Amino acid sequence: MTIDAIRFGNVPPELFASTDAEFLAALKWRDHDVPHRSASNADGDLKTVGLAWKQQCLEHRAHKLRHTFATLDRVLANEPQALPAALAALRHQPTLAARTKKKSQTKTDAATARDTQAEREQALREWLSTGQGRDDVVVLLGCLELLLFQADQLAAQTVGELWRWSLSVALNLSEQLVEIEENDETEQMLASEVVLRVAVASGLLPWLCGLFFDDVKGAPKLAKSGRKSLTSLFVAGTEDSGNPVAAVVRGLSDWLALWTDAMVASRRFDRALWKDSYERRFNGFLRATTALTTDLETSSSSELLGLLAKVVPEQKPEELWREGLEAALNGGKLKSEETGKKKETASWQSDTCSVACLRTSWSPDANRIVVLHDGRDLTIDMTIQGRRMFVGDWKLSVLNNGQPVELTTEWECCCWYSDKDVDYAEWTATATDGVVVGRSVMLHRRDEYAVLADVIKNAANERVDVTSALPFATGWSSSGIEGSREQRFSNGSQSLRVFPLMLPQDVGFGTSGRVEHQPGEFTLATAATGGGLFSPIVLDWNSKRRATEAEWRELTVSEAGKIDHSSGRAFRMAIAKHNLLFIRGLRKITRYRTALGYQTWNETVIASLNKDGIFDEILLVEQ
Q: Residue 539 — pLDDT band, cuts 50, 70, 90?
């Protein structure tokens, strides 16, 4: 059979039906001085190709690449049967080095291992001959994975047949390639459940195949197309500084896996993934993502460490978090050449991305609160001492004089403040009847406590009811404290004290509010009259204050000396050496507001009363 020239952009119909010799003879190389040149003449065969490829793999083994594609791991986590059995059996076999280092291995064990390996390779070659999986991008990704990470462990003939199958499928699929463009649809695609598959098909695979088969004519154009699609996706998923949008944060493990694999190929084949104009943006993405990630046992943390390993190679895993981050902040250099540079905080916020990240430090076990405000409910992800406590939608229900209200505007971050002591973020939205709904979060960097609050303004004077539900991560539960309305959150090894300040501390005092302890959720319901409500809860995880008596109560608020509940709400809370004052205005004032002798024009005040009777302001927010 005589077939037309085979190259990317020219795929003859006889591609899969041709013999190995015909295929190699028709293949057009970009440069005849290539490792596979001898395979393109009359005496060449796939075994020769396999030997050349194996030699390349051994030469690049020093890069210490991971042994699977992270994107394939993510796909198989949701679709465990996506790969044929013959491919799946070879994915996680021990490396050649690991097999040879087993000193305790007997000759019988070694022979058994060789027989098993031979059986698996035979099963793979039989499967390759069936022609199955030619239209499946996941199967192609699995074959490329074997070529990149395990070719040096396979027989040359097996490698050659795998190489031909992968190249043929890549040639065929490249004809159907649809590039990802930079437009509004790309941004909408980020929230799709199939975004990873689309990113693999249109971006990652063209990039990989273009690099894998760079010697074949047309391959550079394919790699360029893949890089363009990946860049479009990256631009849609980040702002100019590199901060990821909320949809990306929700699928962070998939997103990190994608760039990890793209960087693996970039390093292996010595081809830059990013043009210079996007390098700084990508470094900013690494910084922002590191700030978002804690709890090193989660998949997103694992993928982040893998990605940092590509930025800063040859570092030990325990060093990657610190040194990889430092490199990201300093343009890929491990040590900053600047002196006296102000230390950057880990916290960040972006209106464009609809994300706020409050974080106490760069330590991997830092306390951290991430809030996404791109949906009907805010989404909260809170980690305490390296363990996730809340994760999911922070639900909110509001009744205005008995009638439910619905949000009529999107959430907007109306205040962001970060200094050496605290991070603070506040969001507002307008609801039916002109009711204004607000939520806020404050995280103290050193004193190991946080404040979460609900605020209602412009409500009916008769009554307003608010129900707030916090979603627990796996393993956490809540319970009440006998004789007090103090609550306790625990996961077996950790424990937090929780103070719902709007409920009277003494259970003997009646209240229209309540707490509910349900599996996976903590619910607080509060109510107020006078046209507004301020309902803060304090979460305290300081071990030295765990057994210390605490007390709190609501304070009288006056405006210019006249008591006025519609002006605002205030609370005092004392625990150990902390004597905290919380004031929140519920309308604009023309005269100063006072609580506990503290006079202020500010809308929000959190202050500490020291032993000398002087207030030290922790947070001030103007009205």
A: very high
* Local structure of 440: helix, strand or coil: strand
The number of CA neighbours under 13 Å toward the Cβ of 623 is 17
**Alpha-carbon gap, residue 54 to 147, rounded angstroms:** 9
Listed residue (495, 463, 458) closest to 478, CA to CA: 495
Contact 70, 261 (CB under 8 A): yes
Cβ contact 338:323 at 8 Å: no
569 pairs with which residues across the strands? 584
> Where residue 33 falls among pLDDT bands split at 50, 70, 90?
low
Helix axes 276-292, 219-237, angle to 10 degrees: 50
Radius of gyration over every alpha carbon of the chain, rounded to an integer in angstroms: 30
Q: What is the pLDDT of residues 240-279, one digit of tens each?
A: 999 999 999 998 888 888 988 898 888 888 898 988 788 8
| 620/606 Cα distance (integer angstroms) | 7
Closest to 246 measured CA to CA, from 392, 350, 353, 359: 353
Question: Crossing angle for the helix pair 205-212 and 137-149, nearest 10 degrees?
Answer: 40
Model pTM?
Answer: 0.87
State the average pLDDT for the chain. Answer: 85
In sequence order, what DSSP letters do the residues of 236-265 get, joined into one string? HHB-TT-PBPHHHHHTHHHHHHHHHHHHHH
* Among 235, 489, 496, 451, CA closest to 358: 451
112's tokens: 């058994």
Positive or negative torsion for Cα 92, 96, 99, 101: negative
If one counts every other C-beta atom within 10 angstroms of the C-beta of residue 365, the result is: 15
Q: How far is the C-alpha of 474 from the C-alpha of 147, rounded, in Å?
A: 39
Region 50-62: what's the mean pLDDT?
73
